Amino acid sequence: MTTPAEQTMPTPDTSVFDGITADADAIVARYPVGRQRSALLPMLHLVQSVEGYVSAAGIKFCAERLGLTEANVTAVVTFYSMYKRQPCGEYLVSVCTNTLCGMLGGDEIHEALKRHLRIDDNETTADGRISIEHAECLAACDYAPVVTVNYEFFDQQTPDSAVELVRALEAGDLPMPTRGAPPCTFRQIERQLAGFPDERPDALAGGGSGGEPTFAGLRLAESHGMADTDGDRLGGGGGDAASGHEQAGKRVPPTPQSGDREETTRVTSEEPPQGGVARKAAEHRDDAEQGMRADRGGEDD
Ligand code: FES
After folding, report:
1. Which of 90, 152, 274, 289 is 20 to 30 A from 232 via CA?
2. Cβ–ligand 1 contact at 96 (below 6 Å)
3. pLDDT grade, residue 1 (50/70/90)?
4. Residue 2 has pLDDT above 80, yes or no
5. Which residues make Cβ contacts (< 8 Å) with residue 5, sequence separation at least 6?
6. How close is the Cα of 145 to the center of ligand 1, in Å?
7. pLDDT per residue as tens digits for the range 112-164
8. Mutate to test the pocket of ligand 1, among 107, 138, 214 (most ligand atoms within 8 A of CB)
9. CATH: 1.10.10, 1.20.1050, 1.10.287, 1.25.40. Which one for 9-79?
């Protein structure tokens, strides 16, 4: 039985998705039989690659193909901030205002961009080109404050550099990000997020995601003579992947090896290792305990 409200609501027309039914089937086929509902997240990205947001028709399309209710799909769409309920601009500019970026100027960058574009947070310019949003940690704290354009990183920004970046987008230019692939449109990146490859010939032109700030902590630990739990110096030498090595003058972090889990279990189930970081932690603990005893006038001795 339908409610009076449902009787007056038009049924969403899903024909806009007719061109992606084979892609939707390909996504569903990635999951075991009986677990098709797990395909919902990539399916929603696929829907966004068509309309630039998740419309009522997009919700209906996903629900029908995955055997879910529209309420099920809506609950997921409204939970995750990467699913947009309003049409997103061609370029989504995300400004991290989380703790580290916020401390280093993320809020000022966000304000400067809103002022420049004359729009508020989660709005899109009248020509449909640029949307702006503040974002929680974008997982690039070592390059704070960061801005992304369709999820490609522009590191260590200032209000001026961010406005310059947006001016370039307004002028039809596509500046290369600090790291990663050249930016593409919001709909193109949504297709990639649905799990389809980036077909652009220059897709691999950008550099990797690592860089000096990422390894700063490691170098600091090395300069203090800290060792890993095997007693090796961090940075190890020896050139094997398990302990990390230098490659083309850059530090390559350790690669997890088969058996690492077992080793971790063994180490943590016995006496704490006394090498490197653990030894320093134990020393600090001993110093603190001595300090507390001294404060109490040596009453424990
Ligand atoms: S706080 Fe901005 S990337 Fe982590």
Report:
1. 289
2. yes
3. low
4. no
5. none
6. 7
7. 999 999 999 999 999 999 999 999 999 999 999 999 999 999 999 999 999 99
8. 138
9. 1.10.10
